[in-house]
Amino acid sequence: MKKREFKIPVDAVHKRLYFLLVIVMAMILLSLIAPYLCPNDPNLTDLKLAKLAPSAEYPFGTDSYGRCVFSRVLMGAKVSIFASLALVAGTFIFGTVYGVICGYYGKRVDRTLMGIVDVLLAFPDMILAIAVAGILGGGLINAMIALALTGWTQYARLARSSVMAVKSEAFIQAAQITGNSHSRIMWRHILPNISGPLIVTATLQIGGMMMGIAGLSFLGIGVQIPQAEWGSMINEGRSLMQTAPWVILYPGIVMLIAVMLFNLLGDTVRDLLDPKELEI
């Protein structure tokens, strides 16, 4: 008996995509206007207000320095989300261009350039990022550079393999015969036909980059105190888990929700761009 394949109705995927896009865009908008939404100064310290439980004035309570946790979570959203988006955009562009060039020209160009990728992939991503961030020193920019060092390699490998599969197609050969330049063939004919998997990878990587920035900040080699960022807030609240659990609980919950939303968005984009999964 032939096994029946389960396919997702295309209308359901579109509805899920629109729903997630609205939520993600609302979250990005809230993080953009976060300075105007903060009920209190996120960096104002007052030891008399230290470790206050959540209340109307301080919805998420206060930390050990008397700072409003809710205001710091809002300001941390701006740092985490926009840093992740910028990081993914940069690695996506560089890695895609790198991989397309390798796959299109092949031979010596491919062996030389992909050798660099293989060297970087020989090290675990996070371990290498920690080492680079430790050498460069703390700070958001240095943390982004550390994560970008290996973040682009997956786009390079994916773009290279996709180009090698597409460049032998008849429409590419026709473009070559008609006198199109190499750059035009790569960016006008090949790139649009391999962009689907790359876009899916980029969407799924946003949550991973957000966790990476938070992880480096948690270790003290990312965003530096007193700048608000979810990872550094969790690190500051470690010693307060028993006396003031809200200091670590709320940044963790908000980060979990943000990462889940971007991952769900990536899964939905993947379903939409994979016709084998859809029921037309």
UniProtKB/TrEMBL annotation:
Family note: Belongs to the binding-protein-dependent transport system permease family.
Segments forming domain ABC transmembrane type-1: 81-266
Taxon lineage: Bacteria, Bacillati, Bacillota, Clostridia, Eubacteriales
Location within or outside the cell: Cell membrane
Organism of this sequence: Acetobacterium wieringae
The protein, known as: ABC transporter permease
InterPro entries in alphabetical order: BP-dependent_transpt_permease, MetI-like, MetI-like_sf
Residue stretches spanning the membrane: 17-38, 81-106, 126-152, 198-223, 243-266
Primary location class: membrane
Keyword terms of this UniProt record: Cell membrane, Membrane, Transmembrane, Transmembrane helix, Transport
PROSITE patterns, alphabetized: ABC_TM1
Topology with respect to the bilayer: Multi-pass membrane protein
